[in-house]
User: What shape does this take?
Amino acid sequence: MITIKSTREIELMREAGKILAEVHERLGEMVKPGVTTWEIDKKGEELIRKHGCIPSFLNYNGYPASICCSVNDEVVHGIPSKKRILKEGDIISLDAGVICKGYHSDAARTWAVGKISPEAQKLIDETKECFFKALAVCTAGHHLNEIGAAVEDHASLFGYGVVRELVGHGIGTSLHEDPEVANFRQHKKGPLLQAGMTLAVEPMINMGTHEVRWCDDNWTVVSKDGSMSAHYENTIVITDGEPEILSLTR
Ligand code: CO
Assistant: This one.
């Protein structure tokens, strides 16, 4: 069941989103060669708690950290580790979720570690653009499947693979609510988008093929062909006019 949030609920999600946006900005600043993903996770948890929020990923289905840190060919759900030291040329996707006053926000960014290849930078930029192409159809009266079509159409321009095994989602008093938000073209139109729906739209894009596999830790998802992968996600709300991005401040 897709829930329609009240003005009051959206205000609380706006608060959560603002804090999460701030956390991402701070974490982005610390992404540098020599930093471990463990340090990023600790800083992320500290920032989230300092704002009086709860890191929603910690212990979610047993996930052992607050910030998913996925490096290079890791698509999502990389587990922070003291042994994972970032090096020049890496890219890192940071995914974080917060609960503030009972409401969730979920967002991800992919950052460059030092100087990266133009190809890697393009992957990061176009993955973000996939989100904005999707956002353009996130207005009342469009169908849910237009989001995936928009992402796939944009990613295809560059020969990128759109990850299919993981999808975006509704969000609110739970991290994952209905509906599932696929990032690929689907025949079934799905529900009409309506004012008050809150969604986590999150394209996950591989430089190579779309195929992924799960690692032995049962969490880390990597691209099957070893190609780099990027992730960009925001929590948004559908309105009667333009959609509002709740987890982005600038
Ligand atoms: Co999400």
